[in-house]
């Protein structure tokens, strides 16, 4: 494998380029832009085809080593990949050559496990080598917190503090965070998600907490992005006849990290015919592709696919960067991207809650396939795309729709539509019996700071 070192630049174009390690441990660039590879490594035809005989962790190693270079010893990286991806990743045939890729078999039954588990292990690798301690501070409205908590649980040099809004997460989401213990500290804040987010931001720049080595694990970290390219290669490699068998991927999108993973995979050389960007009623991107005008939705719209209720996707600046544009952290377009190219490579569609529920019903009745709301948005988006573009609707077109969570995580939504209770997978069941541990704090930054000082001051 060619060892050309990939460097990372900031999408705001006003920070020095950094190594993978620096981008990973810093999270956000100093100019508040997002890190992105200066050049995306290419994989040639023969090697892409050869993925068909590799297993998941081998493909993960092949992809990730191109971005990380020799910053992580290759033997160690192979081991990290094996260790992170020790669960099933089924592709389920719906009809003809249309498939669902189930990314819901990880420990928290969310696709966020794929990225969080890799990021945790990479952070541990670097901090251990440097013999330092890291405190991950993150605010969650539910799913990210549980994936991060599980991914970082038991790691030696990393402590995790997760803040969540006390009355805004489901019992299941809370238990997935609070039943771990050890290096995972969970804080329920008597406030809203935005209050948690505000406290986290303040702590990062608080001089009184200067001696604590903070980092974040939110979706803007490059370490949360690159592992999400792997399952695009993997699902294609299980299903494609040959290199010329291009796939249509439908991606249920909120902060657009999942989609970014797919776009990076295509830039590397994965044969992709089209991305269907499926959003819920938060339709700022479909509106943008249509009109050429980007407008943040504030407040965001509440839909049943709750992990996608995002009025301004945090990865939009990266999408713009891939197409030659620049967007700042406030969502303002500094330089227009190549809209024509964007439109030819992405088909964006907004799916209403009504359509989402219809799709859950229809998939179950027609195919016996149970989808949760996010996967249903993707499947509906694919259906709309195929109806609109009749030439791609032939039976030979390979289509892969991403299912990003397990239906058991959305029991009331499923029950409302189908009147059945989804089977609960083992890892989610196990949580039910365990003891919970967390602290409840007032919505007051000074109280939060004192709490941190009492526990983490070195
Ligand atoms: C986070 C999440 C999404 C959205 O993914 P993005 O990378 O933010 O676009 C979709 N489905 C589920 C279940 C999620 O948890």
- The name of the CATH topology of the domain at 89-108 and 224-418 is Rossmann fold
The level of helicity is 40-55%
Strand order, main sheet: write it out.
Answer: 3-4-14-9-10-13
Largest sheet: 6 strands, mixed
**What is the average per-residue confidence, as pLDDT, rounded to a whole number?**
93
Name the CATH architecture of the domain at 89-108 and 224-418: 3-Layer(aba) Sandwich
Q: What CATH first level of the domain at 89-108 and 224-418 would be assigned?
A: Alpha Beta
Note the overall shape.
globular
Termini Cα gap = 42 Å
Q: What is the count of β-strands?
A: 15
Cα gyration radius (Å)? 21 Å
Bound molecules: pyridoxal-5'-phosphate
- Count of separate DSSP helical elements: 18
Helix- and strand-based class? alpha/beta
Percent strand:
15-25%
Defining traits:
five-stranded parallel β-sheet, binds pyridoxal-5'-phosphate, six-stranded mixed β-sheet, Rossmann fold, alpha/beta, globular, 18 helices, 458 residues
What is the topology?
Layout: E1 8-10, H1 20-26, E2 35-37, H2 45-50, H3 56-68, H4 74-84, E3 91-95, E4 98-102, H5 112-129, E5 134-139, H6 143-152, E6 158-165, H7 171-178, E7 184-189, H8 193-204, E8 214-215, H9 230-239, E9 247-252, H10 257-268, E10 272-279, H11 284-291, H12 316-322, E11 326-327, E12 333-335, H13 339-345, E13 346-350, H14 353-367, H15 373-388, E14 398-403, H16 411-418, H17 426-433, E15 439-441, H18 445-456
Bound molecules: pyridoxal-5'-phosphate.
